[in-house]
Amino acid sequence: MSVTPRRRIRRAAWLGAVCALSVAGAGLTGCSSEDPDAGTNGVGKLPADKIRTKAAAAAQAAGTVRLHGTVDAGGNRYTLDMRLKADGGTGSVAAEGTTFGLLRIGEQLFLKADAGFWSHDDGDAKAADKLAGKYVKVPQSDPVYKKFSGFTDKDVLLGGLLTLHGTVKTDGRHEQAGVRTIRITGDDGDGGSLDVSLEGTPYPLRLVRAGSAGTIGFSDWNKDFALEQPAKDETLDYGKQLPAS
Questions:
Q1: 235 touches 110 (CB < 8 A)
Q2: Signal peptide location in the record (predicted)?
Q3: Phi first, then psi: what are they for 90, rounded to 5°?
Q4: Domain limits of the chain?
Q5: Region 41-62 average pLDDT
Q6: What number of CA atoms fall less than 13 Å from residue 163's CA on the CB side?
């Protein structure tokens, strides 16, 4: 009696077992093609312009976000670490060798900095010392309010940052802080690039601005935080206009 059929059965059984192990994640290949979108939110299957639209919509709908990185604006490079929500924001900004804190609660903007920030060539050293280390309430009519309040405004900041220039294309799958992403670019990267999460909600996770004008990371989407009014002994209301800084 021939043993060939039995050998074929055994061989088929072994092949079936190998394929089962491959599907179970044993790292073996050759039985089936791997789906790069398996286990993702499916955004990676979309055209680049639709990915951008979904990312922008997710960012707008989120209650909170943390931004950290660099932004070039008005001839200066700012290093940001800000947490933002609909009614305000808090964090720090560094520029031109100095770091200062910003806190906005509703329409009230506070600025906290050292004496070096407040002093200038012909300034009042006593006034600078008085303001140093305090939460200084910035009048809405003061140029400082207009200059810095945008750093605490979620809609303004995200609306200005989440922009790609030129023709938008996808640029493969990547990873940011352990999260799988799909990258889209403007003009093959010259117009900026944006990494969008492939896990859960398609939030923006990393932006490289056009023209090397900064790199921003986005995290803590929808993780709430408190905006607390500073203590009275830590607050100064300077009046209608702050000293030049």
A1: yes
A2: 1-26
A3: -150, 150
A4: 1-34, 43-60+162-219, 75-158+225-237
A5: 97
A6: 11
